[in-house]
Amino acid sequence: MTHSAFPRTGLVRLSSILAPAGPIPVSKSTWWQGVRDGRFPKPQKLGPRTTVWKAEDC
Questions:
Q1: Fewer CB in a 10 Å sphere around the end CB: N or C, the chain?
Q2: pTM for the full model?
């Protein structure tokens, strides 16, 4: 998935959010710290090893 193909709605995994595939150029550790600090949206758990975010929140 390229930056221009980022969906407007739906659920997306972290690999689709962060660069180089996604539009947000931060590392995983920065992203998770931002989630804890409230700078980035809270995730939704779909299963024990599946975390997603609403595309419209990102």
A1: N
A2: 0.84
